[in-house]
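Q: Is it fine to ask for two folds in a single conversation?
A: Yes, each is treated on its own. Send the first.
Q: Here.
A: Result:
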Amino acid sequence: MKSLRIMGIIMVAAITVSGCGTAGEITKSQENTESPVTETSIEVTETETETVSTTEPVLFEFNPHVYSPTLAQEIPQDYWDSFYNMCDALRTGETSFECSSKEAYDFCMNTSTTASLFPPACLKVSGDSDDGSEPFENGVGKIYYNMAPEDYVVRQAEFEDLIVGILNSNLESDDDDFEKCLKLYLYMAKNYDYDYEKEDKASDNGFVYDTFMTRMGQCVDFGAVYGYLLLQVGIDGLDIGCFEPDMCHAWTYVVLNGQGYHVDPTWALSSCYGIEDVYMDYFLMSDEDRNQDGCLVRDLSMQALPQFFLCNSTIKLSATDEQYSFPDYSTFESLDEENKILYYRDMYGNEYEMYYGS
């Protein structure tokens, strides 16, 4: 069983979830052995290079219509269609959109929905009428902005540029889904910091948006950010969490090649350990791996789900595959993409390889 434990209390609400509380810095009980970087090593992009140069081809474009097959088990298609209509309207500063029903409208305007699936809109638009008119009527939903519509359009465009920069600075056009998952995991581990003082800060931006813009947050923020980046490139990923007496924590549930896995970007953060290496034992974990950390996968929450707790829905999550389970305290070394081999080191500095091809 891993010795790492992050303990704390989090009160998770629709948009005010803050993440794992900690009494001090996150630590590993074993010192990690320094390892040389080989020619095939991935260079994780720093923030300064997240803006794509105009002289380089843009391989990935912003997707305003992200989709989760897992969430779709509970959310009807007409809700998705209505939500996409709203997203398109928001990008141009419109004040109404075509919507199938009042129930679909409520889903679109839910802060948990926008936080997970369209972050810039969270807390910046609502379904609360400010003039006494009906928010939804005759197949049309109204958008009430909490900022000038033209300013929101600028906010949206800046966010889209940020996402496009992250994707194009870290991914390649021929990456398979495993490589996309890994490279975005390494990107987050190298570029994000844990915010131990988040509870003392006020924000009206929405937790996912804030974390994207500041690269600081707590567990539920990182779980949602990683999930959203995966959704942008067509991989099903959503933040989930557990509420155990000794462990309140959140991470990302990922579906890769038809199999479910747990990915914990928070416990992978290099800055929390004061090292340059990235721990791999929090990447593509099985249920058993997750349980051994004290994060019991029984009564889990899902931020984007209107019912919030999975026990109140028809969604059943499973992560039984262990082909990508890494030894405790193993660290990323390099990636041979041509031969589909990932190299990693154990806590003693010994190098191993994992074949990840089909």
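Q: Second one now.
A: Result:
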Amino acid sequence: MLKELRVEKPRAELRFWCDRKFAPQARSIVSSFDERLRLDTIVAGKLRRYHHLTVWQQLTWPSLVFSNLRDGFLVGVGVIQSIAKLVAWRPDVIFTKGGYVCLPVGVAARLLRIPLVIHDSDAHPGLTNRILSRWAQTIATGAPLEHYPYDIQRSHYVGIPIDQRFQPVSAAEQREAKRAYGVAQDKPLVAVTGGGLGATRINDAIVELLPKLLDDTSVVLVSGAGQFEELRDHVPANSESFQLHSFVNDMPVLLAAADVVIARAGATTILELAALRKPTILIPNAKLTGGHQLKNAAVYEAADAVKIVNEDEMERSTDVLLEAIRDVLAHPDKSLAMARRFHAFSKPDAAKDMAQLILKTARRKV
């Protein structure tokens, strides 16, 4: 999206704000776009809530209560810090994505009457966006508007800006991607990813199923760094039949090579897979705040666009996941139709549309 803003307004001054924890990763991201783009850090805190626990259980968990009280104070500090930075800079518009670091910035924008644009990737708004939506001039969503409680007059379904390399591939291009990745071209490829940090329960299930899976398929497991060393002692060495990676730099190539993808139900991951038009099995993490992955997955399950595997059921018996994989591979026509329905949710112009909404909001102020 930064690239689209620069195309539309080459001389616009852009700044990227985040908290200190994310700063090293953010610097890497923004420097790949423009080394001169300024990055600022602010103090922020988050309200920890767990979907699998009752309100009473959370209120009687001392360390959780203490963390929330401490971070509530940090939000107040972040508001004061944001006000000071915004008074000094005075931008024409502020764009936030809904993370906890956005709350103090959005509150400061409201107090200083600076136009605010928000984007909600998940199919159910998080706490930050539910608060900021009251004041935002423009609201953009990653899923169709019927899944949100927002004011329809200010809301726009734009999708989620993703890497343009996530596109459907031909059979020949898929074979080339398999060759590039060093996996067998004559066997279906199951690609498994649990996101940047990995997903322990998915990793463990795949390792348990490997003896059954490798009879008929190739498998590439992207485990995340945290469990990589542990898993390496329990799986075969990397070959054309199986590969274990802690992370990959060329995820679009790996997913293009896949015949079926197994993934979490993060909003961006879902739209990347929809853009690729890949038969997909989602295993949402039910424990995350607000159950947002469950709600994300439900949108696409209702459209018969993906298969859903319940993680608790999978933990009781990995055969649940094995049956889902085999069903996708055994019925290619049915799986292709499912992937086409999935692809209908992709928004290839999301970055451009989002940039235009931001600029339009800024022009209204002028």
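Q: Anything structural to flag on that second result?
A: Two points. Residues 62-89 form the longest helix (28 residues). DSSP finds 16 helices and twelve strands in the chain.
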